[in-house]
Amino acid sequence: MKEFALIFRLKDISDFKPSPEQMEERMNWLAGIASQNKLVDKGSTLLPFEGSAKTVRPNNVITDGAYTEIKEFISGYIVVRADHIDEAVEMAKDNPIFTQVGGSIEVREVVKRD
Predict the structure, then answer these.
(1) Which of 9-13, 22-26, 32-36 is predicted most confidently?
(2) Distances (CA, A) of 97 to 23, 25, 64, 67, 110
(3) What DSSP string describes 2-18?
(4) 73 exposure class (CB count in 10 Å sphere: 0-12, 13-18, 19+)
(5) CA distance 48 to 74
(6) pLDDT top residue among 70 and 56
(7) Is the CB of residue 75 less than 8 Å from the CB of residue 67?
């Protein structure tokens, strides 16, 4: 089996703090993946607030925040185990983030360094 990172992107900073009900839905989704023994890393939340993120660019250019030219930002990630990327995509499609606040989930294969 391969490993895939599911990278969560939100559209607006106001969507960053889910309600207790939204958080419960998200944890239930995560528990569903874990119950199949396909959760490799429950990941982490990446804070998007001022002072908690900087971007380093070529020529020592450092800017505040995690934002690119658009307001969408990465809010966190998990790593799952799947036979192929389509299986990982199917896992991502069930995440309640789509019905709760919108946003997107980027699915990327993880290649471990030795």
Answers:
(1) 32-36
(2) 10, 9, 26, 20, 22
(3) EEEEEEEEES-GGGSS-
(4) buried
(5) 8
(6) 56
(7) no
- Its pTM stands at 0.84
Residue 68 to residue 57: CA distance in whole angstroms: 12
How buried is 94 (Cβ within 10 angstroms: 0-12 exposed, 13-18 middle, 19+ buried)?
Answer: exposed
Which two three-digit tokens encode residue 81?
Answer: 């185990």
Looking at every residue in the chain, the average pLDDT score rounds to 87
Separation CA 109–CA 111 (nearest Å): 7
Q: Which of 27, 22, 73 is nearest to 52 (CA)?
A: 73
